[in-house]
Amino acid sequence: MTKVDILSVNISDKKGIIKKPVPSIELNKTGVAQDAHAGNWHRQVSLLAQESIDRFSEQAKRKINFGEFAENITTQGIILHKTAPLDRFTMGDMVLEVTQIGKKCHGDNCSIFREVGNCVMPKEGIFCRVLKGGNLKAGDQLEYQPRIMRTLIITLSDRASRGEYADKSGPLLKKLAEEFFKLKNRHYKIETLIIPDNEEQLKTILKKAQAENYDMVFTTGGTGIGPKDITPDVVKPLLTKEIPGIMELIRVKYGMEKANALVSRGIAGVMDKTLIYTLPGSPKAVNEYCSEIFKTIEHSLYMLNELDLHG
Fold first, then answer.
1. pLDDT value at residue 59
2. How many CB atoms lie within 10 A of CB 73?
3. How far apart are CA 252 and CA 259, in angstroms?
4. Exposed (0-12), middle (13-18) or buried (19+): which is 24, by Cβ within 10 Å?
5. Structure-derived torsion over alpha carbons of residues 18, 20, 21, 26, reported in degrees to the nearest 10
6. Which residues are bridge partners to 148 per DSSP?
7. Which of 155, 166, 236, 272 is deepest in the core (most CB within 10 A)?
8. Phi-psi region of 42 (alpha: psi -120 to 50; beta: other; left: phi over 0)
9. pLDDT average, residue stretch 219-241
10. What SS3 class is residue 184?
């Protein structure tokens, strides 16, 4: 695990002003005790890396003091804005969870902007919520624990499972998922399976993925109306919530170009906290479906983890 050094801890009694270093801070369920930004929202604690401050200091041609950009915690050791929401920082029992990267800059309406002349916080600061509280001081070390997106891709095909032909849709789906995770600065682990069109085998695999809290499962194949097209029929009873809009959009969008797309019975939904999407078995369809599904994944993950980013 990556260690993150704490250089300074800082508080202020008003929003929009420079924070002052203090000997230590208490983190509780609403954020930093006695700090103006504490509350029942997702931006309870702000962090800014000294690496970002140093770069700005060179541009500004002057020394930037701890807390000058209104960060609660000044760190050193990693580039904070390369983290992602749902990553965590821990120290003993204390747990901070990343909720937002950067924020809107208020420009001249912000006293920090007026006093300093610019602000690095909107681009490179990050925000966390407190999952478990504790005390923090300069000289302490946090452990950075990236959220690893556990993903399972299942190809359903009797012939591919027997080795009669090479699966193309599963590897393509894996490639597209890898590109998506890298774009989002996500750590990930992707597993792939090829199984026959077997109802009981699919059900067993899905229940195991649900029990082990996989973040998402994709299936490819078995979404049509043929005798062996059983994927949606197996998946639907396992859902705790269905997400109909995704597949409805895809069917209409591509069905307007090619009517055969309207025959797909693919579904999307949630098994507790595991997202699941059933895609057709052709590489062309995998490309089309992923181009729409991936637009919704980050927001879906936030909702499942009770992270409201509207505030």
1. 76
2. 30
3. 9
4. exposed
5. -100
6. 187
7. 155
8. alpha
9. 97
10. coil
